[in-house]
Amino acid sequence: MPPFLDALLALAMVALAALVLLDRHLVRACAWFVAFAVSVALTWWRVGFAWLALLELLLGALLTGAFLFYALDVKLWAGAPQVRLARWRDPVPLTWRRGLLRLLPALAVLAMLGMALASLADTSGPLRAGGLGLIGLGLWAFALHRHLLRRLLAFNVIGTGIFLILMGLVGDRHPAAGYGLVVTGLLVALLGTALGALLIRRLSGLEVRSVRSAARVGRGGA
């Protein structure tokens, strides 16, 4: 693949991951994640891993995306009115100072990982560049955000970066071993996302119930 297309694929993945992790609108962030998974599948296909591209579309874009929307109680088939989307925003404010402080550890980990990879095999192209970018962004977002869904999104972005670097290390020498590890990782990430989505829905329900109970007690006391 020409170097320009390599750079374009890596840039597209990292840009979409940034939109996933930094968009303040939670529903829109989940929609960006579906687009991000499609870009990862395209990268797998362009570097010759067609089966991983198909699995990424199925497990990453379709099933993981569905669990993320489930965590927000979004039913796309129900035709929910658009005014409801205004409530699905991250309530925790972000400041430049907090963002910079959380960025420093992520950059340190990324630098150490980059030096370790530089001494290993020729992991070039979109796999190493995109993988390093995704791991750095994911680590920063995981430390930066407090919202559970935000951290679940960061968890998936970090995992994708690890899979890309892993297949870059394996290359064409031991593709079967790489396929096995990445497929196992995709399944574990899907199960982790499903469990996280269920917990988020449960915690959200308990929070709503607590607010309603407090409101009823307040009206009764008045």
**Percent helix:** over 70%
Helical stretch count?
A: 7
- Class from helix and strand fractions: mainly alpha
Shape: globular
* Strand tally: 0
List the helices and strands and how they pair.
Layout: H1 3-22, H2 26-46, H3 50-71, H4 96-118, H5 126-144, H6 148-170, H7 175-221
Characterization of the model:
The chain has seven helices and no strands. With 222 residues, the protein is an all-alpha fold. Helix 2 (26-46) packs parallel to helix 6 (148-170). The radius of gyration is 19 Å and the shape is globular. Mean pLDDT is 83; it is low at 80-86.
List keywords for this structure.
mainly alpha; globular; 79% helix; 222 residues; 7 helices; single chain
Question: What is shown here, in short?
Answer:
The chain has 222 residues and is an all-alpha fold. It has helices spanning 3-22, 26-46, 50-71, 96-118, 126-144, 148-170, 175-221. Helix 3 (50-71) runs parallel beside helix 7 and helix 5 (126-144) packs antiparallel against helix 6 (148-170).
